[in-house]
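Appendix B, Record 12. Input sequence as logged:
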Amino acid sequence: MYCPNIPLRCCICLGATFMIDFYQLTMTAPTTDIPRLTTAGLWKQYVLGGDRQAPDLPPAVEDFYITRLENFRQALRLPTQPHRRDVNELVFVTSGRLVRGCNLSTIQMEPGGVHLLLAGQIASVNYLSDDVAGFYCHFSLDTIIRLYHREHMVRELDVLHTAMANKAITLPGKVGLAVRSVFERLLDEHTSRNDLSLIDAYLVTLCYEIKSALPEAGTKPRPGRAYELTERLRQLISQHTGCHLPLTFYADQLGVSPNHLNKAVREVTGQPASTLLTEARLLEAKVLLRHSDQPVGEIAFRLGFNDQSYFSRFFRKATGLTPQEFRKKD
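Logged structural output:
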């Protein structure tokens, strides 16, 4: 099976040895069963029939989109199955209750709650109460955030993601009012003029307002270039989930040497870049074990392990549990 989004020139520049490995890899490691949904695909798969129809989606919906949570409650058939998005999602609840999945975590959101889900993470929408209200927006870092804001935005998103990796945060009253006001302005701009320069500025303001509620808000920011490379590496790993490509491939895609990429990732995470590749593979294994009834041997095969016993050793070393034990665990 061919691994998507890999241009032939990248295979050539990695040399003949990798071409052989790549051929063997694509023959033995098909992509996993966690779908990657566009916004239109999400609505097509989960919108209710009858008089509940998907909203009209603008052509640039994958660049930026914002709507009220009430629209989701009225339209979506819940729960959605685990899926990936290529956009960053930001949700803010002003009333009612929302439950969403983020990788292996269940995120409970109540009034004043905000949660960020970065592009490439495994998401689901599990529950929306009848009285839920608030905002949902998503944006692409590559197409919306202008060049002079990009470094700052990558840094802010990393801080917010760290704070919200496994939970939503509840904003205090004053910050919550400010965030709600910015969301209202974003919605108004999106539905009227749709000036991307203003949307850009509002998104940056939104992140700064949310960050002001975090205990770490006063810490000194770390270098932006290393953060940007690390974030782009994470996105590329997600885009090629199931392909298990070497670090040299990702370095080539990012236009840097493997050593430079390793140095940047270590500066941000304290670990080598290969750790991100291993973590992505492990997360995929956990999700498939938790959310599917596929045999362990098939999951191992899908993740590129030709030997089930080797996969079991890999999994147990990382988690302390065998795949079978993890699957039985609540």
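The beta strands are 64-68, 83-84, 88-95, 98-102, 105-109, 113-117, 122-128, 133-139, 169-170.
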